[in-house]
């Protein structure tokens, strides 16, 4: 079995003693194999992915908050971005992503 990149990153985050991963095996600085909880790693990876996606969606909608942007549905963007900020602050394993509003130019 091979780990995903997200799972590997989660292992390093959850288990600071681990310095190397080969396949699905993890090792400390002395080359000793270190056991890890795959479920905890998978959960952390899902939360990290949620947070990264929310940050990217926020960045992609930053334009909607500029003072000179004249859209008539700014409140929809505000609500959309509030949900995304919630996922950045408290990421979850299975997010329900809001649909990005389409700008209504006024």
Give the SSE layout.
Layout: H1 5-14, E1 18-22, E2 25-28, E3 33-34, H2 38-60, H3 74-89
Antiparallel strand pairs: 1-2, 2-3
Helix pairs in contact: 1-2, 2-3
How would you characterize the overall build of this protein?
The structure is a single chain. The protein is mainly α. Helix content is 46%, strand content 10%. It has helices at residues 5-14, 38-60, 74-89, and strands at 18-22, 25-28, 33-34. β1 and β2 (25-28) form a beta hairpin. α1 (5-14) crosses α2 (38-60) and α2 (38-60) runs antiparallel to α3 (74-89). The longest helix is centred in the middle third of the chain and has 23 residues, at 38-60. The mean pLDDT is 97.
Structural class, please?
Answer: mainly alpha
**Low-pLDDT windows of residues:** none
Strand percentage, roughly? 5-15%
Number of helices: 3
Large-scale geometry: elongated
Largest sheet: 3 strands, antiparallel
The gyration radius over C-alpha positions equals: 19 Å
Question: N-to-C SSE series?
Answer: HEEEHH
Structure summarized in a few sentences:
The chain is mainly alpha-helical and 106 residues long. It has helices spanning 5-14, 38-60, 74-89, and strands at 18-22, 25-28, 33-34.
Characteristic key phrases:
single chain; mainly alpha; elongated; 3 strands; three-stranded antiparallel β-sheet; 106 residues; 10% strand
């Amino acid at each position: 079995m091979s780990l995903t990149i997200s799972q590997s990153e989660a292992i390093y985050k959850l288990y600071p003693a681990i310095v190397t991963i080969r396949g699905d095996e993890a090792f400390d600085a002395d080359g000793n194999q270190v056991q890890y909880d795959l479920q905890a790693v998978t959960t952390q990876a899902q939360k990290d992915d949620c947070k990264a996606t929310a940050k990217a969606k926020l960045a992609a909608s930053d334009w909607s908050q500029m003072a000179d942007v004249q859209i008539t549905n700014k409140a929809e963007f505000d609500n959309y971005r509030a949900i995304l900020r919630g996922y950045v602050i408290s990421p979850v394993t299975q997010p329900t992503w809001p649909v990005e509003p389409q700008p209504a130019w006024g």
